[in-house]
Amino acid sequence: MKKLELKFLNELGKTVTYSLDKPIEPVDPAAVKAAMDEIINQNAFSTSGGEIVSIKGARVVERNVEDIELV
After folding, report:
1. Which residues neighbour 21 within 8 Å (Cβ) at sequence distance 6 or greater?
2. 41 located within any domain
3. CA geometry: angle at 59 spanning 14 and 32, to 5°?
4. 55 in helix, strand or coil?
5. Domain for residue 24, yes or no?
6. Domain interval for residue 32
7. What is the pLDDT of residue 65?
8. Per-residue pLDDT tens for 21-58?
């Protein structure tokens, strides 16, 4: 399963990550940045370290799980 991770910095300089399942692909970097800017402008989320103040980055993460057959 793939996830889109949005990484921000809060007032204390700590990284805050929000994950979204099943991102639309291919991911549009301009749309992701615009959404992240809007999250900051709207003060949409609060963190224990204060408000989100800047964008740190974004990435698509894919997790693969392979079962091991035990004999």
Report:
1. 1, 2, 3
2. yes
3. 95
4. strand
5. yes
6. 2-62
7. 86
8. 999 999 999 999 999 999 999 999 889 999 999 999 99
- What is the residue whose two structure tokens read 């889109």? 4
**Within a domain: residue 71?**
no
H or E stretch at 49: none
> What's the pTM value of the predicted model, to 2 decimals?
0.86
- Alpha-carbon Rg of the chain, whole angstroms? 15
- Name every residue whose Cβ is closer than 8 Å to that of residue 27 and which is 6 or more positions away in sequence: 4, 60
* pLDDT tens-digit series, residues 5-24: 999 999 999 999 999 999 99
Chain-centre distance of CA 34, in angstroms?
A: 13
17 inside domain? yes
Hey, what long-range contacts does 28-37 have (CB within 8 A, 24 or more apart)?
A: 29/58, 32/4, 32/6, 32/58, 33/58, 35/6, 36/6, 36/8
